User: Fold this.
Amino acid sequence: MIEFLTQYITWWHWIILGILFIIIEMGTGTFITLGFGVAAIIVGLLDLVVSMNFLVQVTLWLILSVAIIAFLFKYFKKQPTVSNTGQSDQGLDTLGTVTKRIEQHGRGKIRFDEPVLGNTVWHASANQTLDVGERVKIEAVNGQLIKVVPVSE
Assistant:
């Protein structure tokens, strides 16, 4: 059986299989079939240069598929996340100091240690009263208003 497959499965079969997997990937967007497709194309190109047994081709395809899928998931996992409000999460770990008292559910001002969304001074709100000089951290960014909580929480 392996001899039959080695004789009749040639390099261009792998290329066609790879292209089919990539076309399927366009409809699914899972990166799994993309890994299968790229691996099949690589196996096809290698089989064109170096003639291989079918069992070696399948083994190489499986190993390459797993490696490519792992690489794709690792690469795309590092992409930055975006909050639901459309604002970047950049600088949400920045601490600040209250410069204008914030009444409970009211507005005040905060001076952050580092720029947050391009500015160090922001109007802010809080669920509790915060006095001048208290250290705070960002809980959420709601458009132009930053919601803060005391650092002790």
The longest strand covers residues 107-116.
